[in-house]
């Protein structure tokens, strides 16, 4: 009988389940609701393919499907199914695909993931996906006994813990293993390097006989990366080990990944220098190595990777100059070298012509032009001269003091201390400041400017202070310091409670940003999607008017397709490769000052409106989200409410007070 398909937002007619001769039932990618009958397998005993993916079905997985001994494909991914995985999986010898990903399936008691063992009897199984659920437990060692034809294994986005079993090496046909976003710990087994190519699977097409992608990101993996991983020359898509606790350095053997397109080692504890052999990754398009402890210099061989589009080495300890060879990266549209210890001149040609693609902030010794470079050299020379002069002067002064003391001692005329000068502020030693700020720990950093950093500290008597650490090597730092002292003398000082702006000022900033985004979305001839809107990309003019900047990742909204839905390019999506889990705050109250929820005032009404805008802009379904123009109108209404409170209410929040530890 031909396939049955539905294109409507309703429920499946009950009569459909009475067609006992049905062999192929596919209703994927619709808005179908309701529960799948638990006895659907008994009603449709001849089913070979069952595809209910991407709908809104509720209820549990029908146990009767596991009684269909001839069924080849069971697919129910991206629904709202709950409950447990029913027994009977061992009764499916002809099964080739089993996909229940992205539902709300849980593990049954102490069963954990042991139901995976039942798939051993499915010798033709090539696709197994249970990702994006609520399953928890250990990966069973028997996973290595699954079908030799298994090429896609998706376990990501669950609550799996324990170690990666070494027996996984027996899955020689595995092409797409994904265990990301779990709680897997321990070291990566070196046996994983045996997943190179299934030499005995001659009957499979070439692309199905080799490892294509591996995603172990966002777990708790520790230890060093086994060198065997770098011998997986068949990797042609991605290698993602980001957001773990990996340590150690990268070996010279990394050259084995010559065919990989994207590598993500970010957010680990990797150290050492980046090997020069990284230039052998000729197929590389994206390389993420940020937030590690890499040191040494940037390998000039990276300039030989002509197809490189994204290179992120930010927040490491890399030093030296930026090699001019990187100018050859003509395909580059994002280079992030910020927060390292780079120095010298920024290259000017090739990939460096468009500075909007380049991020180098946080490198105090790096110069953007020749003038800065000359000043830096002149400054170093001047500093050396100053040191010599200061040393000579110090010796001379000490000699004079010594002579005077000797003379006074001989005459026995030691002057008595008439009085002590009472200072307005006590003298604080460097040792006390170092102790107060935790050795200038970054956790106490409350601000960073062009000429230095400001730390929050607590003295021995409990006094909270702000400590400005000046970078005297920067031209103009002394003048800036004197100006800041004058400002402090006049009473202008940074608050240490995390708030500089009152609620009205914050609301004005939000309105300014919303105006800018509204213009991009609705008033441009071709709508623009910023793709990187965050506090660090919001700038202020002298009147504290917020401006949206940094359009390095902005995308144009393409013409509407035949389905009248706007089409956008997602190439600017930044983050971990692969599964991206949803994240919701457990409670709005956790991020708002509790005092704001007491009383009934204009401020209270204003905050309710603001929170409502935030919630309406973050609804799961994009179709149900409030557009920016409507959000802007609501924010302006909130501001009007704040400025014109009701006559029968007293303001219960000082507009001049900042809001706790919240950030804009």
From TrEMBL:
It is a single-pass type I membrane protein. PROSITE patterns: LRR, PROTEIN_KINASE_ATP, PROTEIN_KINASE_DOM, PROTEIN_KINASE_ST. One of its GO terms (cellular component) is plasma membrane. It comes from the Eukaryota. InterPro entries: Kinase-like_dom_sf, Leu-rich_rpt, LRR_dom_sf, Plant_RL_S/T_kinase, Prot_kinase_dom, Protein_kinase_ATP_BS, Ser/Thr_kinase_AS. SMART domains: S_TKc. Keywords: ATP-binding, Kinase, Leucine-rich repeat, Membrane, Nucleotide-binding, Receptor, Repeat, Signal, Transferase, Transmembrane, Transmembrane helix. It holds the Pfam family Pkinase. ATP binds at residue 468. GO terms for molecular function: ATP binding; protein kinase activity. The chain crosses the membrane at residues 384-407. Residues 440-664 form the Protein kinase domain. It is found in: Cell membrane; Membrane. This is Protein kinase domain-containing protein. It comes from Populus alba. The lineage of its organism: Eukaryota, Viridiplantae, Streptophyta, Embryophyta, Tracheophyta.
């Amino acid at each position: 009988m031909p396939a049955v398909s539905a294109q409507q937002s309703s429920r499946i007619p009950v009569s459909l389940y009475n067609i006992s001769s049905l062999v192929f039932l596919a209703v994927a990618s619709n808005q179908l609701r309701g529960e799948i009958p638990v006895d659907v397998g008994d009603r449709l005993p001849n089913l070979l393919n069952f595809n209910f993916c991407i709908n809104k079905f509720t209820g549990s997985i029908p146990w009767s499907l596991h009684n269909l001994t001839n069924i080849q494909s069971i697919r129910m991914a991206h629904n709202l199914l709950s409950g447990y995985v029913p027994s009977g999986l061992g009764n499916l010898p002809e099964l080739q695909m089993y996909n229940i990903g992205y539902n709300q399936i849980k593990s049954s008691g102490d069963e954990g993931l042991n139901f995976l063992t039942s798939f051993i009897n499915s010798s033709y199984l090539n696709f197994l996906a249970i990702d994006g659920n609520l399953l928890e437990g250990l990966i069973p060692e028997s996973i290595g006994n699954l079908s030799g034809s298994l090429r896609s294994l998706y376990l990501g986005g669950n609550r799996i813990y324990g170690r990666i079993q070494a027996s996984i090496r027996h899955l020689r046909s595995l092409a797409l293993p994904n265990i990301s976003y779990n709680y897997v710990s321990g070291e990566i087994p070196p046996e994983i390097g045996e997943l190179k190519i299934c030499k005995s699977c001659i009957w499979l097409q070439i692309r199905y006989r080799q490892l294509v992608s591996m995603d172990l990101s966002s777990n708790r993996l520790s230890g060093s990366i086994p060198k065997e991983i770098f011998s997986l020359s068949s990797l042609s898509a991605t290698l993602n080990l980001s957001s773990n606790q990996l340590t150690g350095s990268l070996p010279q053997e990394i050259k084995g990944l010559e065919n990989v397109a994207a590598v993500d080692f970010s957010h680990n504890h990797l150290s050492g220098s980046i090997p020069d052999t990284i230039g052998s990754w000729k197929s590389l398009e994206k390389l993420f190595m940020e937030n590690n402890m890499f040191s040494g210099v940037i390998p000039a061989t990276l300039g030989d990777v002509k197809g490189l589009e994204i290179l992120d080495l930010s927040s490491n300890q890399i030093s030296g100059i930026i090699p001019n060879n990187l100018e050859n990266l003509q395909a580059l549209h994002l280079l992030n070298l910020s927060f390292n210890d780079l120095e010298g001149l920024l290259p000017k040609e090739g990939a460096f012509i468009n500075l909007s693609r380049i991020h180098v902030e946080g490198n105090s010794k790096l110069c953007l032009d020749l003038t800065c470079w000359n000043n830096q050299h002149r400054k170093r020379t001047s500093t050396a001269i100053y040191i010599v002069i200061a040393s000579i002067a110090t010796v001379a002064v000490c000699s004079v003091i010594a002579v005077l003391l000797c003379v006074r001692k001989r005459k026995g005329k030691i002057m008595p201390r008439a009085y002590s000068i009472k200072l307005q502020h006590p003298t604080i030693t460097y040792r006390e400041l170092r102790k107060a700020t935790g050795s200038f720990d970054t956790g106490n950093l409350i601000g960073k400017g062009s000429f230095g950093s400001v730390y929050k500290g607590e003295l021995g008597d409990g006094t909270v202070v702000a400590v400005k650490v000046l970078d005297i090597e920067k031209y103009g730092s002394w003048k800036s310091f004197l100006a800041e002292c004058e400002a402090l003398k006049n009473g202008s000082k940074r608050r240490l409670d995390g708030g500089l702006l009152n609620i009205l000022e914050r609301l004005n900033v939000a309105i300014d940003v919303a105006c800018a985004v509204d213009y991009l979305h609705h008033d441009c001839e071709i709508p623009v999607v910023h793709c990187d809107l965050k506090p660090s990309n919001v700038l202020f003019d002298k009147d504290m008017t917020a401006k949206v900047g940094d359009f390095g990742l902005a995308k144009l909204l393409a013409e509407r397709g035949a389905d009248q839905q706007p089409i956008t390019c997602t190439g600017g999506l930044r983050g971990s490769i692969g599964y991206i889990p949803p994240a919701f705050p457990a409670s709005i109250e956790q991020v708002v000052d509790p005092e704001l929820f007491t009383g009934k005032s204009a401020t209270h009404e204003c905050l309710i409106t603001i929170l409502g805008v935030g919630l309406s802009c973050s609804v799961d379904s994009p179709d149900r989200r409030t557009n920016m123009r409507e959000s802007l109108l609501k924010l302006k209404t909130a501001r009007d409410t704040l400025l014109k409170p009701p006559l029968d209410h007293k303001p219960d929040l000082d507009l001049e007070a900042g809001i706790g530890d919240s950030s804009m």
